[in-house]
Hints:
Radius of gyration of chain A: 23 Å
Structural class of chain A: alpha+beta
Number of strands of chain B: 0
CATH superfamily of the largest domain in chain A: Cytochrome-c3 Hydrogenase, chain B
CATH class of the largest domain in chain A: Mainly Alpha
CATH architecture of the largest domain in chain A: Orthogonal Bundle
Distance between the termini of chain A: 38 Å
Largest sheet of chain B: none
Strand content of chain A: 15-25%
Strand order of the largest sheet of chain A: 1-2-5-4-3
Shape of chain A: globular
Largest sheet of chain A: 5 strands, mixed
Number of strands of chain A: 17
Strand content of chain B: under 5%
Oligomer: heterodimer
Order of helices and strands of chain B: HHHHHHHHHHHHHHH
Largest interface: A-B, 31 and 29 residues
Helix content of chain B: 55-70%
Number of domains of chain A: 2
Shape of chain B: globular
Amino acid sequence: xxxxxxxxxxxxxxxxxEQGDIKAIVPSSSFYALAKKLKEDEDTSFDFLLxxxxxxxxxxxxxxYHLESTKYGHTCVLQTSTTNRENPELYSxxxxxxxxxxxxxxxxxxxxxxxxxxxxxxxxxxxxxxxGYPFRKDYDxxxxxxxxxxxxxxxxxxxxxxxxxxxVIEKENTLFDxxxxxxxIGPQHPSTHGVLRFRTSLQGEIIKKIEPYCGxxxxxxxxxxxxxxxxxxxxxxxxxxxxxxxxNRHALCMLIEKALGVEIPERVQYIRTxxxxxxxxxxxxxxxxxxxxxxxxxxxxxxxxxxxxxxLDIFEQTTGGRLIQNYNVVGGVQADIHPDFVNSVKKFxxxxxxxxxxxxxxxxxxxxxxxxxxxVGVLSKEDAxxxxxxxxxxxxxxxxxxxxxxxxxxxYDKVDFKEIVYTEGDxxxxxxxxxxxMLESMKIIEQLIDNIPEGAYQVKxxxxxxxxxxxxxTSVESSRGEFGVFLESKGDKYPYRLKYRSTxxxxxxxxxxxxxxxxxxxxxxxxxxxxxxxxDIDR
Amino acid sequence: xxxxxxxxxxxxxxLTSVMPEGLAIFLECLVVGVCILAAYAVIAMILIYMERKIxxxxxxxxxxxxxxxxxxxxxFADVIKMLIKEIVELxxxxxxxxxxxxxxxxxxxxxxxxxxxxxxGMEILDxxxxxxxxxxxxxxxxxxxxxxxxxxxxxxxxxxxxxxxxQIISYELSIGMCLLAVAIxxxxxxxxxxxxxxxDGWLIFKGHIPAVIAFIVYLIAGNAETNRGxxxxxxxxxxxxxxxxxxxxxxxxxxxxxSEYLNxxxxxxxxxxxxxxxxxxLHISGLEGFNAIMDYIPGFVWFFGKAxxxxxxxxxxxxxxxxxxxxxxxxxxxxxxxxxxxFNLVLMILVVVFKLHF
Lengths: 539, 358
């Protein structure tokens, strides 16, 4: 099927730009109809909104959508924009893809684009009384002095709708009414794994509604990137999801290498793959430890941390960093692997395979764990795709979403490993996916570790890297889902816009759906099994 | 076997010889009270140290080892810290109830503690309805917990207090069932007589199946009574930060902390007294020499040995299991534990009526 033709049939005014990835520029008036058709038509069925990026093009403000079909695997990039900078309004797609809800709020927050028919048009990361929209190119950096007053949490929100005459009107929606018992779980709470805040409406112990509040650790990394050269932007990727530090950086390096058309030596590909998988084991051990901790068992927590230490030692040996390694660079890796690297990895794997049985003995087999996790927090496959909860959470719901299989990169198409998919979609499945993935990761490492080819560990790059004009998107499978990087380049030595597809934001967006009707204790168990990392959500 | 009543009656005679009897009894009460409080504090410190070390072993750690040899002085450092810490006053709380709550909790715990017969002739509160008295005073503590949660004027503490109320009141029933089974078997509600009944064999051996069931049910229910894992819902630090005592600081928090540990000891002490023979040495009929040697070991050593063994079992549970959810916890009590307790009661009656015991 010719996708280009299809799009032109539905929206004839569409233009195509072929710089970097092919991009369809759709006028805002016909965009919603096109999106709806692309999603619902049997032969296109774009049911997965991979990424939604706000953009300031200078003269106009717009949004770029990365769509993907889980059925056929084809992708497309749509762009729509409005020239009205005073009062930009676009149509919302949050009724088509649930993940768009939070993404559009983020775009509103940063660019001021208001989405019509979006039920909850509030800021996502910044304070409600923030002046201006910081990601616009004409934003005045001094317009928000340090605010010394407390923010008042509003229980009301606005929605833009279109009335019978075609005029845009504002409607008020209620988040929580006065009679509800609303309790703040977070931002300072032991089990939110960072500064995430859930306003939870309770009926006794039962959760009626959850409203997540993000942004307590928002650092504006994407904005900072616009003033950094490409090698400098690398340093910030490790600070997103610190448990996927290596994979995040891998994604950005891959993107820049792809845009420049650099050929990467095989030795580098081997090293990167092994490091990615070590990082994944590291992250999943931490997942196991923290889940046990959240559920009140502290002994498995210390077991996990004991063994994670060994991976961190391996990282430290080669990269000098433990949590944040700063190892990948454009064109290769920072330094060659330590002479003892192969040895220590080979020592670690049999040890850990053994100890994993102990993990299962103390935690997985426990009858209380089964009671607490089985059948709790079920996320259906449709919801998982609609929310875009990639990674372990999606695979536990029966959605085979592993980027390593879907869009193989580095060495993943040359190694033999199984994609772990469970169909239950409950907390226990989410837990088991990660436990089984550790075994697969070890399998991958074992296949590679003995065959690391000789050669250069780095391609010599020019001191100033200029990425050719165009827009590019690459994604990798980070420890908790598909981590994507979108780059819009104007041919400068700075990126025009660099956007990270957060792996955690869809998870947080899905929390309300997953926990509805559960108990407070379920929220903690579900939060543990979703395995989000806050700096990755807030960026 | 050393009988402590020799000492106490000697002191009583000495005091009455130098002062009127009323004053003597008043002085004795004072001394006993001070001794209880001292023992309470010392046992709490031992328990805290024990828990730290045991949980460290379970978790492949070393535990405290910096302050003093083997970290022994760590406890004193902690106690001093707790004592000199500021007691924070909160706005918009019921100050009187807020300050009262920890005292109710600790009072109920001390009263229950005083019921434990530590040695032969060393009973403090010992009368014919001792078991009922123990159950009554130990359940007073829940009032303190509810007050603490309510008066803090915080939603977290409120949820913790409500959980705690539901939990403690439910599990009290199972404890009652186990104690009743013992009362049926021994035919008395007085602790000293229950212990005396076990002179020729501990109850857990004499009462075989129903006694073992009662012992296990008692341990589970007792663990729930003390709000310890896997039943630590009222505190549930990963859900409610610290449950009902979130808003407490300094020694007021210390009282909750102390009473939690001592309640564990009381549960263990009662289990040791009614199931494991209290201060009674291990006697095996027929082996006279062995029995004589066992008699040389003083009673309080037996008592503390057994009690700390049960404490170890409770800690083992605590550091192995995951926390239950509140509805599962209540379902467990009302649908599983209580029917077992009732069934066990009937079984015990049959055993007693048909003389099926040893």
